[in-house]
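Bumping my old thread because nobody answered last time. Still need a sequence for this structure:
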């Protein structure tokens, strides 16, 4: 017997864990691919899948196999950039490697690399998996593939990698052994063959049978005539060396404290000092040489970094020009004849044009930003604020193709102490909350931009408030600002070019979030709970009630108030706002932001995304989640059902919730008579599915399936004895019953 169930059923999202296959992984990262056949447990996911994003991490290393390709370590991602147009570097693909994210407390991520035409050798570090060398096959440049991993024991971090003659040489900082030698002649099975204690090292370069290592003792020269038995042949002592470059018979060294020097090593055992010069700023980090010029990175202890252009054609070296750059700390540099690429541990790749060495200029950048805080989506155009950092920015992204977001435009939010926290868009205007930095006397406030077009935004003004603004809510023409321990400020923005102060509401606790519904103002006061005010007369607010519970974020819908705290998700009945009643509660991993669509509440938390089903307000339950690399700080749900998650260090994640918006009814067709029972059915939502077979006495003789299934086509078979049976099927809330006859 054959029965075909064509199911167009209602949606109910279950708890579900997804393990992405290698091919699925390649789909969301753009064009990258992990070794085929290997299962990659990339994220913890329940009912969610990643469909794309605009990712960032803290960048630490770059390598250029030629003038048009640049590989960048972006947190745990290996990123390929096309720099043929160096003013507009374009991301080609990114591939996640088994490396941990980078935090100041946990030194992780991709730390050093060496790229050739066929392979990229990547030094990775993680607080959980330790240090390792990963080998990525890039022979087919559009389809990279992780082919080999070599774990090695080292106290330090793999800071730099160079490869010669079938061996990879890894410089390790902060401990021993300092230098690790790995046999990579078989890229699929790399193995450690030797180590050498040269002290903590930051940079190295292989020349013929020698390895020049920048270390705390100076420059260590290691003989690798026999790579299995390396030994230190010479040590050039002096100041600590953080970066070096060898060209022909000259060695160029970045010597820590504002010092760059040159050594003639034509006679290796009798090096000749050729002079030195002071660099701008206090400390030098790295150096690369192209032609007659050395490009040297340096920075100050209190901020500020840049690129020194130094003439090394005729010793002693002379500083020609200096390009001051924004960002955190530039830690690595690659130079061509007239262009230098630097990588900033906070902000990605920056391009400096030094065709005029006396006036080097910033010419381009890629992924400049730090910590995504909040996001707003309109018709696949994503507006995202970046902070907290000294260089907060507003990014406008094109997410029409979620798997490969592109940049429309961006705007640095100055002054430099800006700390962007929240974004609101109304009509053609963008409002951005500025947390500020009161420790240095800088008040917060809010920005107002006008949207000319997706690729053009215009700053209208930056308006100061004597407090740190964390979140805000726009109701008609009134902007309510949650200003932490300063309460709530109200501004009239009917004239966006000249906002006017209206009133300030004092709170007993810390104002973390605000929400306005009709004439009621709801304030999340952290430990003090929820404060409800009647603001029908905005100049004379009236206290309605207070409800004691931990609350950091809130949303009001109909007669319900949804509240998120550091530990729980609450639902309050506010049909009588003078006497709120607690209806339901569920545990969550803290709440950074919330949005409601239908019967689902989306929560950004320190682990990523959590989704609560609130169809029964008395029993909210977690039905979906997604673990991002760092911390979910803000979110927005688009009209297309996609969830846009602003993640701390990574930037933007675009997620799809299974079965969202699917509804309909179940129908069936097919023969009722056959020698066995065969069921073929289609699920268009994400449902709990159960099929059972009963005999004429009403006894269950077989449970064919009982579990959760996502969208797709399925089939079941049952070989029963001849007779009459009844099939009971249920998909979600839809129930189907049918009598069948099995004959032999």
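Sorry it took so long. Here it is:
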């Amino acid at each position: 017997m054959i029965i075909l169930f064509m199911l167009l059923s209602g949606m109910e999202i279950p708890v579900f864990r997804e393990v992405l296959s290698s091919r699925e992984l390649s789909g969301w990262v753009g064009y990258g691919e992990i070794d085929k056949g290997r299962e990659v447990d990339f994220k913890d996911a329940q009912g969610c899948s990643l469909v794309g994003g605009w990712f960032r991490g803290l960048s630490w290393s770059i390598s250029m196999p030629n003038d048009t390709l640049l590989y960048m370590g972006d947190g745990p991602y290996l990123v390929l950039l096309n720099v043929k147009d160096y003013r507009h570097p374009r991301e080609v693909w990114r591939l996640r490697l088994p490396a941990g994210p980078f935090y100041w407390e946990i030194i992780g991520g991709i730390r050093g690399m060496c790229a050739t035409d066929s392979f990229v050798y990547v030094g990775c570090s993680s607080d959980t998996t330790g240090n390792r060398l990963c080998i990525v096959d890039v022979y087919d440049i559009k389809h990279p593939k992780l082919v080999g991993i070599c774990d090695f024991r080292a106290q330090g971090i793999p800071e730099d990698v160079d490869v010669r003659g079938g061996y990879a040489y890894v410089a390790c900082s902060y401990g021993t052994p300092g230098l690790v030698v790995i046999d990579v002649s078989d890229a699929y099975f790399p193995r450690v063959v030797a180590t050498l204690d040269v002290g903590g090292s930051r940079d190295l370069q292989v020349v013929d049978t020698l390895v020049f290592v920048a270390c705390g003792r100076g420059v260590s020269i290691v003989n690798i005539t026999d790579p299995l038995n390396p030994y230190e042949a010479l040590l050039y002592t002096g100041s600590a060396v953080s970066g070096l470059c060898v060209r022909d018979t000259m060695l160029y060294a970045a010597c820590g404290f504002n010092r760059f020097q040159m050594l003639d090593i034509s006679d290796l055992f009798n090096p000749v000092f050729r002079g030195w010069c002071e660099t701008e700023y206090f400390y030098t980090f790295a150096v690369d040489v192209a032609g007659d010029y050395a490009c040297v990175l340096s920075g100050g202890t209190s901020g500020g970094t840049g690129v020194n252009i130094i003439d090394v054609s005729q010793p002693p070296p002379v500083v020609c020009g200096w390009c001051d750059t924004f960002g955190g700390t530039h830690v690595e540099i690659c130079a061509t004849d007239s262009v230098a690429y630097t990588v900033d541990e906070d902000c990605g790749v920056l391009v400096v044009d030094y065709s005029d060495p006396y006036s080097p200029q910033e010419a381009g950048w890629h992924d400049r930003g730090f910590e995504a805080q909040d996001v707003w989506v309109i018709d696949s155009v994503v507006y995202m604020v970046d902070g907290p950092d000294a260089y907060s920015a507003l990014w406008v992204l094109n997410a029409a193709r979620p798997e490969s977001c592109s940049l429309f435009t961006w705007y640095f939010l100055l002054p430099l102490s800006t700390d962007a926290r929240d974004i609101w868009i109304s009509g053609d205007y963008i409002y951005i909350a500025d947390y500020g930095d009161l420790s240095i006397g800088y008040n917060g406030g809010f920005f107002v931009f006008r949207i000319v077009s997706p690729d053009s935004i215009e700053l209208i003004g930056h308006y100061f408030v004597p407090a740190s603004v964390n979140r805000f809510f726009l109701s008609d023409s009134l902007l309510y600002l949650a200003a932490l321990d300063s309460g709530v400020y109200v501004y009239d923005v009917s004239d966006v070019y000249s906002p006017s102060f209206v009133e300030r509401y004092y709170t007993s606790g810390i104002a973390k979030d605000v929400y306005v519904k009709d004439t009621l103002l709801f304030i999340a006061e952290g430990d003090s709970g929820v404060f409800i005010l009647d603001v029908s007369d905005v100049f004379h607010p009236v206290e309605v009630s207070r409800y004691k519970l931990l609350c950091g974020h809130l949303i009001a819908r109909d007669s319900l108030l949804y509240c998120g705290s550091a530990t729980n998700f609450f639902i309050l009945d506010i049909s009588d706002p003078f006497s709120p009643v607690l209806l339901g509660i569920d545990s969550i991993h803290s709440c950074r932001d919330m949005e409601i669509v239908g019967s689902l509440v989306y929560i950004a938390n320190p682990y990523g995304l959590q989704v609560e089903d609130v169809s029964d307000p008395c029993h909210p339950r977690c039905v979906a989640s997604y673990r991002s690399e760092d911390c979910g700080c803000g979110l927005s749900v688009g009209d297309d059902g996609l969830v846009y998650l602003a993640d701390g260090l990574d930037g933007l994640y675009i997620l799809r919730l299974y079965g969202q918006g699917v509804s309909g009814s179940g129908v069936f067709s097919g023969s009722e008579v056959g020698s066995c029972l065969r069921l073929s059915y289609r699920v268009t939502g994400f449902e709990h599915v159960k099929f059972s077979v009963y005999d004429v006495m009403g006894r269950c003789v077989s449970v064919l399936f009982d579990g959760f299934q996502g969208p797709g086509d399925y089939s079941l078979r049952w070989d029963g004895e001849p007779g009459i049976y009844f099939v009971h099927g249920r998909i979600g809330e839809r129930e189907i019953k049918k009598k069948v006859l099995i004959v032999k």
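The two ends are 11 Å apart (CA to CA). Let me know if any region looks off to you.
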